[in-house]
Amino acid sequence: MERQDGAWRVLPIEGRFELFYEDGNGAWSVRRLQARELKIGPGRVLVCGTDRDRDGYRGFRADRIHRLTDRDTGERVEHNILDWLIRRAEAARRARAAALRRKTLPEAARPKEARPKAARLEADRPGGKARAA
Fold first, then answer.
1. Contact yes or no for 65/20 (Cβ under 8 A)
2. Is there a contact between 84 and 73 (Cβ–Cβ < 8 Å)?
3. Which of 40, 55, 85, 130 has the fewest Cβ atoms surrounding its Cβ within 10 A?
4. Distance of alpha carbon 84 from alpha carbon 79, whole angstroms
5. How far is the C-alpha of 1 from the C-alpha of 37, rounded, in Å?
6. Could you tell me if 121 and 130 are in contact, meaning their C-beta atoms sit under 8 angstroms apart?
7. Per the record, which residues fall in region Disordered (predicted)?
8. Contact at 8 Å (CB) between 62 and 48?
9. Class of residue 70 by CB neighbours under 10 A (exposed 0-12, middle 13-18, buried 19+)
10. Residue 113 CB: number of other CB atoms within 10 A?
């Protein structure tokens, strides 16, 4: 769930990423990250999660990531990495919000495409009504 942590806006993000990363001293490394959150703060953005090789929770500055590969899809990002991360986190937020609405709305109040197929068919018949859950 999205939250505010002081001056930081924290968005959940899920994924297994391989990062080509340059640290503050200019040293390059390849990091395998199980991402958990994207932290957007004053002047910087961090992608945070479990560093699979160093077995610890870490944050990586998005402006220091030179290439990102999504290990689940194989998608490779070399430009506009920050924009890609924000779009990914926002899409996940919208999907979670839609799933939550589907769980909490009574069936008759759900959008037609979110109803179970049997309820859609019943509602589409002339004079038919959606059945309450």
1. yes
2. no
3. 55
4. 9
5. 10
6. no
7. 100-133
8. no
9. middle
10. 6
pTM for the full predicted model: 0.69
Task: Walk along the chain (133 residues) and give the pLDDT tens digit of each residue.
Answer: 778 888 999 999 989 999 999 999 999 999 999 999 999 999 999 999 999 888 899 999 999 999 999 999 999 999 999 999 999 998 888 888 888 887 775 655 555 555 555 554 555 555 555 544 4
Three-state SS sequence of the chain: CCEEECCEEEEEEEEEEEEEEECCCCCEEEEEEEEEEEEEECCEEEEEEEECCCCEEEEEEHHHEEEEEECCCCCEECCCHHHHHHHHHHHHHHHHHHHHHHHHCCHHHCCHHHCCHHHHHHHHCCCCCCCCC
Q: Which two tokens stand for residue 44?
A: 């910087």
| Amino acid, single-letter form, for residue 47 | V
